[in-house]
Amino acid sequence: MSRGGPRRDAAVGDHLTGHLHALAALERALAHPTGEDLHAVLRDVQQALQEAMDERQLALRRYAALFDAVPDPVSILSESGVVLDLNNAGVRAYGRPREDIVGQPIEILNPDLPSDHLDPVWEALRRGETYVIEVTNMRGDGSRFPVEVHSAGFEHQGEHCIVAVARDLSSRWQAESRYRLLMESIDKGVILFDRNLQVVSANPAAHRILGTSGGSLQHLLAPEDWISVDEHGHPLTREQWPAAESLQRGRIIRSTIVGLYHRPRGRMIWISTTNVPVYSNGRDTPDHVFGLFSDITELKRNNTLFDRAQSLAHIGGWEWDRGLQRLYLTDEAARILGQDLPMQDMAHLMDCLRTDDRLQLQQALLEVIDRQVPFELELQGTRSDGHSFWVRMIGEAEAGDVDAARIAGTVQDITARKHAEETLRIQARTDPLTGIMNRDAVLGDLATRMASPTHSRVAVLYIDLDRFKTVNDMLGHNAGDELLIDATRRISTAIGTEGLVARFGGDEFLVVCDTRDQPDQPERLAEAITRAFIPPFRFGSDEFAVTTSIGIARAPQDGLRPQVLIQNADIAMYDVKRRTRNGWQVFSPELAQRQHDRLQIESRLHRALDDEEFHLVYQPQVDLKSGQLIAAEALIRWRNSQLGELRPDVFIGHAESTGDIVRIGQWVLREACRQVRLWQDAGLGIVRVAVNVSYRQFVGEDLARNVRQVLEEFDLPGTALELEFTERVLIEDAPDTLQTFGRLREMGVLLTIDDFGEGYSALNYLRRLPIHGLKLSQMFVEGVPGNRSDVAVCEAVCGIARSLGLGLVAEGIESEEQRHALHGMGISVGQGFLFAPGLAPDDFARRLARRG
C-alpha cells in the first residue's frame, strides 16, 4: 500500500472513471486494427493516461495535505482494528514514530479496550451512523489522556475500513463553566469520587435522586447513614462499590444495579450506575471516578430482588390507586402487616390499626390529597395472629400528580425498636431489684400531680428501714437484697390501691397518696405499714427485727414542689429514727427547726474534740438486791458554747456517719482510764468502768493494741475496764474478730454485748465469741412488769445468759417495780435513774467514798 494509504487511492479512483471509455476504444481498435485507427487510438490513450497520472498525483497531494492538516489524531483502521495509517497530529499526540503504530492493533493506543470493542462500532456504521465514544488513550511514555473518538466507515478495494478522529478532551478539565452547565442540566445523577471514595462533587440530579438536597458532600453517601446492597439483595461493603472497582481496575464499569437504604429517613431507592475512571494528565492510573446513575426504584418495585432487599431492611412498599380504589403491597409489606386476608384497599389496612392511629393515617392521607403534603407516621396495629406490631409509614403523591391519584411510600417494621424503647422506658422508671417505681419515676409522677389543680392535695410518706445497714453489712448484700424485696412486698400489701410506692434510695421508700377525700389517709397508711413490719425477718434459722421509721408531709402546706415536700417528709422520718424508731411522724415547722439544729451539730462536731468540748459522766451499776455500787458506765457529754450540753443520743449518730466516732471513742477510752487512775490515787480503790466501743472503731483500728497502750499508760489492770459492743459484732466471727476478743480477754478486760435482743437473736454467733456478759436493752426493760411481751423477752435473755454462763446487766431501770421484777428474774446488776443519773467525776468519787 502507498504512503497515501487506501483513503488517498480512493480519492484518485474517481478521477480515472472518465478514461475508461478510452481504454474500451483501445480494446476495440486492437480487435480490428488499421494503421490510421491504431495510431489515433494510441495517441488518445497516451494523452488520457498522462492526464490521469497528473490528476492522480494532484489528488494524492491534496489528500496528504488534507489528512495531515487535521489538528486531531486521525487513524485509518482495517475491519479487524489494525492501524493502516495515522496523520501527523496522531504521531505528535501519541508520542511514537509512525512505523511503531501503523500495522499494529488499535489496542496499542488504548490498551483498556475490551476484546469486542469493534462490535458496537460496526453495528452503528452499518446503520449509516457515526459512532462516538469517550476513551482514554495512552502515549508512548505510558501517560494517559482522555479523547472523544468519532468513527466513520468506507470501502477500499472491497475492504471495509474505518476512519477514526480522536478529539483530545484534556482541555475540558479547564472548562469549568461548561462542565457545570452540563452537570446541572442533565437528569442523571453524577458524582465525582476521589481515590478514597470521598465525594468531590455532585450534580443537582444526584442530590434529588438520593433525597439529600442541601446536605453536605461529606454526608452524601456516608456509611453510617446508608446501607448498600447488590442486585441480589446482598450487602455491599464500601470496597465492593462499582466506583471502587472502576478505580482499582482502571476500567469503565457499566450499568450496575445497586440498592441504597437511607437509615435516617427509612427510604429505599434503586439506581443503575455506570462508573468511569478519570486519569489526570500524565498519569497512568486513575485518581478519580465518575459515577453516573439513574433512579430505577419504580422499575424495581415489582421485582422479587427488590422484595428481598426490603426484607433485609424490614421495609416494604405500598401504593394506593385512588381511582381504582386499589392498594398494592409488596410481599415484605404484606408480611410486616401480617394479615391472613389480602389487603386490597386502604380501608383494609386501616382496619388492623388502633383507633387513634387509624385517625392519624386518615388525616395524613387527606393532607396528601388536598395539599400535596407528604407524611411520616409511627402506627400501631394488630396482626391476624393477635400479636401487636409497630410500623413506620411514609407516603407521598407521585411528582406531577396534582390530584394525588396515586399515593405511594414505604412501611417499615419497627416493632423490635418500639419494644426495646418500651423496655428501656420501663427500666428507666423501674427499680431493677424490687420491680417498683424508682426515684426518677416517682419524682415525675409527683410533679405531675402537684402541678394539677385537681390533684395538688397529695401526701408523701418517707420510709426508712431501721437496722437495714447492719443486716446488709453483716449478712452480705444477698441478704440485704432479700430484705428489700420482702420489705417492698410488705409495704405494697399494706397500702393496697390507696397509694403509689417507689424505692427512693438504698433502704428508703416513698409512698404517694391522695388526700382530697380522706385527709387522714397518710396516717392510716403509716399505721398499716408499721404493723406490716411487726413479724421479724427470717434468714435461715435466724430472725431479725427490722422496723420502719416513717415521715409524713402534705401538699400544699408542707411544700409546693416535689423536692420540698420530700425533704420535709425526710425531716419527719429522721425525727422518728432519732427518737424511738418503729413509728411515724407528721412534719411540722418545729421539726424543720430541729433539723436545722442537727445541721448545726454536724458543722461543730468535727472541731469539738480539738476544742476540748467533750467530758464524761459516770452512771453507777449497782447490785439490785443491796443497792451497793459495783461498777460504772462512762457516758460522753458534749458542752458547746452555742448549742449547750448535748447527750450522746443527739450527736453520736452524726459522729458515726462522719467517721469522727473513731477519734472520739479513743478519747473516751483514754479519759475513762485516766479518771480511774485519779480515783485510785485518791485512795478510792479501783472501780471497773464500762466504755462503749463503736463498730467503726472496732473494725477500723487495732483495738487490742490501743487498749493495752492505755492500760499501760495509766498502770491499770485489765479488770478495771469493761468494753461494751453492739450486737453487730456478733455476726463478725471472722478470725480477726475472734483474735481481737481473745487478746482483750487475756488482758483481763471484760467484754459485754450492749442492748442485747434489740437488733438480732444471733445465738449461733453469741456462743462463738469469748465474751463475759450481756446488757439487757432499755427498750425491753421499760415495759417491765406491765408489758407481757417485754417481760417474756427479758426472761428469755436471762435464760440465754444463764445457759451460756454470762453475766447480765439491766439498764434503764427507773422504778422500784422494775427493779423488783428484774431481780426476781435472776438479774443481779442494773443501772438507771432509780439509782443515779450520769455523775460528774467528783460526784461519783463521793459515791465511791460512801461505799467504803
Automatic annotation (TrEMBL):
It comes from the Bacteria. Coiled coil: none annotated. CDD domains: EAL (cd01948), GGDEF (cd01949), PAS (cd00130). InterPro entries: Biofilm_reg_signaling (IPR052155), EAL_dom (IPR001633), EAL_sf (IPR035919), GGDEF_dom (IPR000160), Nucleotide_cyclase (IPR029787), PAC (IPR001610), PAS (IPR000014), PAS-assoc_C (IPR000700). SMART domains: EAL (SM00052), GGDEF (SM00267), PAC (SM00086), PAS (SM00091). Residues 598-852 form the EAL domain. Residues 456-589 form the GGDEF domain. Residues 59-128, 175-211 form the PAS domain. Residues 375-426 form the PAC domain. NCBIfam families: GGDEF, sensory_box. This is EAL domain-containing protein.
